[in-house]
Write a structure and sequence with these properties.
Order of helices and strands: HHHHHHHHHHHHH
Number of helices: 13
Helix content: over 70%
Distance between the termini: 16 Å
Shape: globular
Strand content: under 5%
CATH topology of one domain: Serine Threonine Protein Phosphatase 5, Tetratricopeptide repeat
CATH superfamily of one domain: Tetratricopeptide repeat domain
Number of strands: 0
CATH architecture of one domain: Alpha Horseshoe
Amino acid sequence: MRRLLTAVATAFLACSAMWSDTLSPAAARVAAAEKRVASTPKSWEAYNDLAFALCRLARDTGDISLYEKADAALHRSLELAPGNYEAQKLTVTTLLGKHDLEGARKLAVELNHKVPDDIGGWGLLVDVYIALGKYDEAERAAQWILDLRAGSTLGFVKAAALRDIFGDPEGAAEFYEEALKRTARSDVDEQAWLLTQDAHEVFAMGKPERAQELLKRALTLFPDSRLALAGMAAIQSAPARASR
């Protein structure tokens, strides 16, 4: 299913050259961050906010060039406040987005050593180790999140990703649902993303109708979500492919 979803997402993105007239939640986040940068050009926090928003948009669209733009914002942030921790953490995300796995690993380990009680740093290590295929290390990092802050949204998200890798869609779906319960209602694009991840797991469990319901909820929150639309297309095309 993951390969099918990726293939359909790629095809969908190739056909989606134009944005809708109304900004998506992720694009609106970028626009708001750009306005803040324009109004407070000496604020390193504003550049961090812009980089974060660009990374969120990249996650939904698959547009790697957005990570380059995020890097530019982070470079300015670090000029204004050298060594600021949040910019460095976001740099790990951009390195992962650009597939610089070794660079991401080195920086994530360095930051984790500096601030070992930050669950965000441990979350980055989970992402890095998953990307490197080092699942035992990823599982240990995820356990640290749960040990440091039991019941955290981040802990459930990372645990869900690992359950998916280990072939346990039921466990992954349960964790994504718990993460969704803990996500702020105002964080619309994150809610939509979690719903698409949950839908993937539910579909893997052989429940296409339920998966479609979840994706419809995601599209209600985020009408032009590339991930949700690709997921819906994947589900709809799966029976026809299976019958060939």
